[in-house]
Write a structure and sequence with these properties.
Blueprint (H helix, E strand, L loop, with lengths): L4 H7 L6 H6 L4 H6 L9 H22 L4 H12 L1 H10 L17 H23 L1 H11 L4 H6 L6 H13 L4 E8 L6 E8 L2 E8 L2 H18 L2
Antiparallel strand pairs: 1-2, 2-3
Length: about 230
């Protein structure tokens, strides 16, 4: 069992209920091999943390930016997406505290990124239950909100699929299509690989926890490839 005091020191929060913090790091797969473990997996905390994060970010955007609803929605989506929060989870050292099955402990790439993103949300849910909304808000403002200026200045909030379709139609007169290249993982943690094509030519692959997320990733990579070749 990992020493959760390291996490508490890192995030600057001392939990009243240590079990809540511990549960945030319990992946469903761990319980398959440790059936007598005293805590449940982290999916309910993840569900709560996801909603909490969206409300905190929405509250912050509403009170700090007078922009139209559409822009705020795009900024929020870019800020709370899995790639962003998994990166923060890694920086906070969450990876070494994960409780995973032997099989999941060998996962890498997008599969591990998804686990870390879910853990970030679960920890936030645990903070909310243990310390309240204000503490959860401070956590998000300390670790997530600082990425917002870069998202705005570099226009990272554009919907990649819409942007790639716009450019492809303008440059070559072709509408991109997306195809499932691969589907793996159990039902509760599916991983999809989607290819984006211009007619019969594949431009890029993208991976995600849903077909939509994988399509967005494929479009984002395709945009990068397109810009490099301009």
């Amino acid at each position: 069992m990992s020493n959760l005091n390291e996490i508490e020191k890192k995030i600057g929060i001392k939990f009243k209920n240590q079990d809540l913090l511990q549960q945030a790091f319990v992946h469903r797969s761990y319980l398959n091999e440790n059936k007598d473990f005293k805590l449940d997996h982290n999916e309910r905390l993840e569900f709560l943390g996801d909603a909490c994060m969206e409300l905190i970010v929405t509250d912050y955007l509403y009170n700090n930016y007078p922009n139209p609803e559409g822009e705020l929605t795009n900024w929020r989506a870019a800020l709370v997406r899995g790639t962003m929060i998994s990166k923060i989870a890694k920086e906070l050292g969450y990876e070494s505290h994960l409780l995973l099955s032997r099989g999941e402990s060998r996962s890498t790439g997008k599969a591990r990124e998804l686990i870390l993103a879910n853990t970030f949300e679960a920890v936030l849910g645990a903070i909310y239950l243990d310390q309240g909304y204000e503490a959860a808000g401070k956590f998000i403002k300390k670790y997530l909100i600082p990425y917002l200026p870069e998202i705005i200045s570099k226009e990272l909030y554009y919907d990649p699929k819409s942007k790639f379709q716009e450019i492809a139609q303008e440059k070559v007169g072709i509408t991109p299509i997306y195809k499932v290249e691969k589907e793996s993982g159990p039902d509760h943690a599916k991983v999809f690989v989607m290819g984006v094509y211009l007619e019969d030519k594949k431009i890029a692959d993208g991976t995600g926890s849903s077909k939509q997320a994988a399509e967005q990733e494929a479009a984002r990579i395709a945009l990068d490839i397109w810009q490099e070749n301009l």
